Amino acid sequence: MNDVAPADRPESWQVHGTEDIWRGAAPFAVRSDRISAPARPDEHFGRLVLEHPGAVAVLAVDDRDRVLVLEQYRHPAGTRFVELPAGLLDVAGEDPLVTAQRELREEAGLVAQRWTHLMSTYPSPGLSSERIEIYLAEDVSETDDRGGFVLEHEEADMTTAWVPVGELLEGVLAGRLTEGPLALAVLLYTHQDRHRAAR
Fold first, then answer.
1. Of residues 83, 130, 142, 155, which has the active-site annotation?
2. Which of 10, 81, 165, 176 is least buried, going by the fewest C-beta atoms within 10 A?
């Protein structure tokens, strides 16, 4: 072990060929790449890649230290998750913060005066290029302007609630709350909050 702090670093292995498995109107695609490691350039092997535009998630905290959460059914996992307001980065060139502000307004009917970028995370880099930007929204208030957004499909069945941060932290640590961005945001927020209090 060396004394250098661990950090992710950009790297690109040679691609010898690509085949589209599925590509349609949705902002996703699945392809198969033939790649090789730099130390073994003659050893080619396949890797599936889910092309993903990225996403945002919002930890909206009110002045009573409660978080706005959603409950939403997710078919691939067969689970109704407790989640944060979130959405895809599917508008070309849009700043992720603008996307986060829109998603909070559309899904939760909230606007916020203070925004802080908490972290970026790749939830499944062995398969997907998805990168999620997680934001903290504070000084929140309700709005009737959802920008014409219409809840449909799973979102039409979505419910919302304000839950104390401490209850969410207990749920994450006990394994009752397992949705990735929610767990990461709550852990990071409570860690930072305790760090500030200890100063």
1. 155
2. 10
